[in-house]
Design goal:
Blueprint lengths: L7 H17 L2 H13 L1 H18 L1 H28 L4 H4 L19 H14 L3 H20 L5 H24 L2 H8 L11
Length: 201
């Protein structure tokens, strides 16, 4: 079933308020937010790599949990993308005809939920199961990513809120299932050439 909702009727006024604020803000601030919105996901990848490197020193089970984080993030992205195809909400810059910091995507590049936010939220939630400190840092970064996507005009506020929920929910469910039966996966990896990935030299 395809919904094809009009997001402007949900929180279009809040979206335009944020976009107007971005236009009135200093250029350096817009540049920083736009750079984070575009390239910030690389920071999440770096945090996942740090979590894995540290987890190897804790033990094989911790390392396997850390290795699962990027896999879970990809899964969350997949779930989020399926929702995009089902909902098919036009980008706000198309519906509201506003000028945004980020170039308006072509029609067919759907808005709900936000992929960037879902990826960031999934990384934050999954990393909380590996390291509370890294997870907390990533959660702050995920909130910044969500805000930046509205600031640059790519998404409505409800798009990023939904992306947060999808990413966090998928990651939490996946991590809980992994935590219940980690041993078979640990035994399999330590018995293959992938062994160095879970054991510190």
């Amino acid at each position: 079933m395809i919904l094809a909702i009009d997001g402007s009727s949900i929180d279009g006024s809040a979206y335009t308020d944020v976009v107007d604020l971005a236009h009135r803000s200093p250029g350096w601030l817009d540049d920083v937010v736009a750079a984070w919105s575009t390239y910030g996901l690389a920071v999440f990848a770096a945090l996942m790599a740090v979590a894995w490197w540290r987890a190897r020193r804790v033990g094989p089970a911790a390392a396997v949990t850390a290795l699962a984080v990027p896999v879970i993030v990809v899964a969350a992205y997949g779930v989020n993308d399926v929702l995009k195809l089902l909902v098919r909400e036009d980008r706000p810059c198309q519906s509201l005809r506003v000028i945004t910091l980020e170039a308006c995507p072509a029609p067919g590049d759907w808005s709900f939920p936000s992929n960037h936010t879902a990826i960031a939220a999934a990384a934050a939630m999954a990393l909380l199961f590996v390291s509370r400190r890294l997870g907390a840092v990533t959660a702050v970064a995920a909130c910044a990513m969500a805000a930046s996507r509205v600031w640059v005009g790519a998404h409505y506020p409800h798009d990023v809120a939904a992306g947060m929920i999808v990413g966090a929910l998928v990651a939490a469910l996946a991590m809980v299932m992994l935590r219940r039966r980690p041993d078979p996966l640990v035994r399999w990896i330590t018995g293959t050439r992938l062994r160095p990935l879970v054991l510190a030299s």
